[in-house]
Amino acid sequence: MRLPRLPLSMTFAVLAAAYVVAGAALALWLATLLPQAWMAVALTLALLLPLLVYHVRRAFAPMNSLFRALAGTVASYRDGDFGFGLSWRGKGELAELVAAHNRLGDALREQRLALVQRELLLDTMVQHTPVAMLLVDPHHRIVHANLAARKLLGEGHKLEGQSFDALLERTPDALREALQRGGDGMFTVGDEDHEDIYHLARRSFRLNGRKHELVLLRQLTAELRRQEVQTWKKVIRVISHELNNSLAPIASLAHSGAELLRRGQYERLPNALATIEERARHLEGFIRDYARFAKLPSPRLESVEWARFLAQLRTQVEFVYEGPSDPGIARVDAAQLEQCLLNLLKNAHESGSAPEEVTLALRRLPGAWRIEVMDRGSGMNEAVLAHALLPFYSTKRHGTGLGLALAREIAEAHGGRIALLNRDGGGLCVSLTLAA
To answer: Is the torsion defined by CA of 311, 339, 381, 141 positive or negative?
Structure first.
């Protein structure tokens, strides 16, 4: 007998009622045939119990199949496969369960599809961004590298699985030094004729419970070149404005002086000449300050004792020295290097750092000297770092914007380079590398 698919409570009720009625009728009939009542009851149970088991199993067989199907789809969901659905023609609680299960599968399938699309979009963006991106695991193995990183550091080859430390051994010294110092910053690769400027950013975070590091390298050469053009245009406007402000009154006063001479009014000539002299001297000082940067002479290298040089520098500005007590002798232009370090140390004192935290560190490298001026001020944000080495760029109200640009010129004239890096814990490090 095939029972209709009824709700669970009704199925139990129908089966129980049917077998109670059938059992009672059979027991009464057998009681008329057998001498004892208990024999009729026993025979009734022996006949009806197998039938009851059979019908219960037939009634609940579809539900058992459904439960197995539900268990299978749950296992598929757990494995990330959301392509399954269930069909149930009955009504009641099981129909509601199947419908809810199918709605869950649809929701999971839609979420999975949206997640896959977002992952594809993110991967496309990461792979095609011009910023070189490297993800490094706690064992210093490269987990992920985008196309820009492969081109910059791996000659187009895959970098995943390689040792980050081994990769750095094949990179330019400036990049390796910038990474070793830690923090964000700028550095220069190449010589004066083929120079590339990069911005370095490093961020640490936890992934799957383990600490990872994201290294970002952004090339700023083209952007800085555009900024330099805009800066020089601004400088030309400033100089033109200053020249007009001085030359216009000079020309006017010269004409007035000629008129005074023609009229014989000599008593008013000294005032006119004094004003002309004042404006001429102002213009001379203005041009001299700007020309000093544009006409930096080639360094006159001479043997300089570091101990005496640093002692002379300390008489002009306060700093804490880190390095060997007797570092030896260097071949540098003492006047240019002194002016460069004075500017950097004064900047460090003006950064908001405590005087005792302004440090000058000196280290001997193979074939070079490294000088680091460090402070514990506010450091530089990314926008300032990107423009700090531009001539005439300054965040100070009355700054000339020549200090860091002049330091860069002096370092490069000595066969070296300059790098700006934010320090861990706050502050800035300006690193000069000079050829030994």
So the answer is: negative
